[in-house]
Structures are given as C-alpha cells and as structure tokens.
Amino acid sequence: MNTNLKMPLIRLAKRDSLKPSVVWAIRIASVVLALLLGMIPIIMAGKNPFVSYGIMIEGALSKPGYIRQTVKRAIPLLGTALAIAPCFKMKFWNIGAEGQITFGAIISSAIAIYLGKSLPSFPLLVLMAVAGAIGGGIWAFIPGYFKAKYNTNETLFTLMMNYIAIGIVRWLQGGPWEGRKGTQMIPMFPDAARLPNVLGIYCGWIIILVLVVIIHVYMNFTKHGYEVAVIGDSENTARYAGMNVGWIMMRTMFLSGAICGIVGWMLVSGANGTLNSDVAGGVGFTAITVAWLSQLNSFAMVVIAAMLAVIGKGSATLQTKLSVPASVADIISGVLLFCMLGCEFFINYKIILRGKSDKEVQ
C-alpha cells in the first residue's frame, strides 16, 4: 500500500530562517498584492483606483493639518501596541486593551471632573495620568490574577471585560456625570485638565515616543523582560528555573493595563477633552495587528502604526472627496491588513504537498 496516501494532501512546516532579502521581497509582494486587490472594490464603485490611491495619500500627508490628524490617529494605536507587547511575548493573549483604555480613561476623567477646578494644570494632569495608569492596571490585573490562580481562559476573560468598562461609561454618560439632562453626554473638561499642544498636536506623541524606548529596554535588557520571554517559550522551563510564573503573569498584566490606562488618559485629556463610550475607538483590537506585524519590536511598531494611521486618515478622505461608501474604504484597509498578516505566515511557515519532503520545499 502506498504510504503517501496516508499523508495529508497539504501540511504546514516551520521554515528555517530566510535571508533578509527574501523576507523583504515577500513583504513588498504582499503590499503590491493588497494594492491590486484593493482596486477591485474601487472599480466596482465606479472610481479610478489610481486617482483614489493618490487621494488617500494626499488626504493623510499633503498638508500640515492632515499630518497632524494622521499623527493623532497613530498615538493611541502605537501606545496600545506597546502595552500588549509584553503580554504577547509571554503568550498571554490580552484582548482586553479596549476595556483597559476605557477604564483608565474613566478614572482619569473622575479626577478631571471632581478636581479640575481646584488644582493647577500640571499637578492635575500628573494626578490624572497616575490615576489612569492605576485604573487600567487594576482592570488588567483581574484577568491576570484569575489566569494565575485558576487557569481561566484569558482571551475570553479580557474580551468580556471590554464590554463591562464600556457599559460603565454609558451609565456615567446618562447618570452621575451627564451634563445637560437628556443629552447623554459628559461636559468638556476644564482647560487645566487638557494636555498642551506641541507642534500643533497634543503632547501625547512625545510621551508615546519615550514609551517606545522604555518598552524596548524593558523587553530586551531587564530581568523582568527576560522572565517574560522565558515564560513565553515554556512555562515548565520557567518553573524549573525557579520563576514565580503566576506572579510574573499578574505583574506583566498590570504593566500592560497601566500603559493602556495612560493611553486612555491621553485620549480624554488630549484628543477628546472629555469621556465617551467610544473613547478607545477600536484601537485595542487594531493594535493587536500592529504588535503582530512588528514581531513585538517597539521601533517597528512606530512604522506599522504610522502606516495604519495613514491608511485610516486616507480612507476617510477618500470617502469624503469621491463619495465612496465607507464600506469600500474599510475593505481596502482590511485587504491590506490581511495581506500583511498573510505574508508573515509565509515567512514563518511553508506549505508541503503530499509526496514532497520538507527539504524539497523552500
């Protein structure tokens, strides 16, 4: 009997490391493929794809005002990617950044609402930042604790906590913090609770760039970062080496949530000037793509977050200038992300057909 028939028709195998030139060739090919596929919905909408792509770039980078809007999109995206990177390095799948940003924003907003008229700007902003970090950290620590103590599913736990945090904001909007009755809106914060602008953009971009360096050092040159990497490779090895795996999980989740809380503070005090239920705006999920595509490299995250911000701002301009449906812009963004993620798959794995050996497939 032919033993090949017992083999699956298609199987996957881990690749050996590829040459950098091959890796970049695959990545460039994925972007080209994404651009070609993105032309399809544009043509179906009756528009010229080359003109449309030009408008997207123009709408994101052609004027100082557009660049500022693009940078504002990149700030929370990059900050959240930095936040979840240590968790992902540990293979703790923190899908709750959205809720951690939101809860950090809630606690920061409480300081602004109750102390905004009685404290000077600098101590008020510092207090808001610390409160936001603690709030986000606690919100992330809870699933970390249950994972460490009871081995709960962190993906579901962190995901469900997103909706709890959003529900709390909605209650506050229509309850204790509602401004004018019936508006379901929280009033704008006083000027003392607003982050100052630097080069026309709220100074959160400086804070995030500092965090890029801090997280890079933390992940690569500290004992804590080493422990996170060891747990990610093998929990059993970490335990054999005498590491307190449960404590490291909780500590790392608190750090992740604290950075998300800082992002929440920047959003309410810098970008929005108040709190609403959509404060995170989906960056908690998009940041997963940023972290994954960057291979958890802090500096690579800067590039990926900037690129996605350009796509997001450019897509909004495309919708406005050419009256293209929002769904078309979303499809273009989704196709690009799909191809970029797919290219990382082909960089790390190879497809082997029945009858072929691993050595025959490069």
Q: Identify the strand order in the major beta sheet.
A: 1-4
Number of helices: 13
| Beta-strand segment tally | 4
Gyration radius over CA: 23 Å
Brief synopsis:
With 362 residues, this protein is mainly alpha-helical. Helices cover 70% and strands 4% of the residues.
Keywords:
362 residues; mainly alpha; 2 domains; 4 strands
Task: Give a structural overview.
By secondary structure, the protein is mainly α. It has two domains: 1-47 and 325-362, no CATH class; 68-306, no CATH class. Helices cover 70% and strands 4% of the residues. A hairpin with a 2-residue loop joins strand 2 (197-198) and strand 3. The two termini are 29 Å apart.
Describe the secondary-structure layout:
Blueprint: E1 10-14, H1 20-44, H2 49-61, H3 64-89, H4 97-115, H5 121-150, H6 154-174, E2 197-198, E3 201-202, H7 204-221, H8 223-233, H9 235-240, H10 245-271, H11 283-293, H12 298-322, H13 326-348, E4 349-353
Antiparallel strand pairs: 1-4, 2-3
Helix pairs in contact: 1-13, 2-3, 2-12, 3-7, 3-8, 3-10, 3-11, 3-12, 4-5, 4-6, 4-10, 5-6, 5-10, 7-8, 8-10, 11-12, 12-13
